[in-house]
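Chapter summary example.
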Amino acid sequence: MRYRSKGAALIVALRAVQAALGGAGGFFALAGTLTTLAALSWFADALYRLWFEARPAWWGLVPFLALLALVFLATGLVRRLPRPAPVIEERLARPARALVLFLSPTRAQLPPEPERVRPEHIPANDSWAMPLVALRKHFDAGTLEWVVVISSAGQGDDRDPRKRGTWHLLEDFRRVVADLVGLPKERILTPPRFRYGANFESAAELWEALDAALALLHAQGVRTGIVIDVTGGTKLPAVVSGVAGLGEGVRLEYVSTVDKRVFEYDIRMRIHP
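The structure predicted for these 273 residues follows.
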């Protein structure tokens, strides 16, 4: 193929290089890198000549201009770097090895021990009903090994049930799970540091509680197949769990209040140009 001018031939050649480098992003990244290296070499050479060869005073503008060009080019390169962006994959929940959940208050009236808890003791619209759906799903799949419960701390007024926290309900919840799901009580843990609950109004403390829960599972040899259930608790635990869901081997889960299907959300950071 013949070209009308040398300029047209040059453009075609540059486009061929661009395509070989994976498009405009790769082409400009390489061109910017080579130009930046040239500017850096120019800057170093100008400083050397100014200092060791006793160049005149106006020569001082050369390294200044070289430095200015270097900063400009480096800034342009940084702006062209690919940026990570979160990608959320939603699907029906897969079986999990371990479940981390937040304990909500309950209206259930449990029978005195040693009488077993029966399904009718947990109202269908109770806050404990939905986590039990998820627990049964994973336990029936034969994969559930551990459950870590994060309860809420009291707010200083034990006379108000809303401010008592849920830490005092932990043993009741373990009993309910053992009787209605089948998971032994010794497999239902809570981080020792948060035996009396975490402040559900503090993002920092919730993050520490989640970190302690994951460390507890790691100590049991579980590093994959970990699910954080965000059905229970308040909105802030769900927000903090979303950040924890970025961790390797961790995904989020939610039980639909409409049809009680269990969905999982796998959050990953991917590079986008």
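To summarize the output: Strands lie at 83-92, 98-102, 146-150, 188-189, 226-229, 250-255, 262-272.
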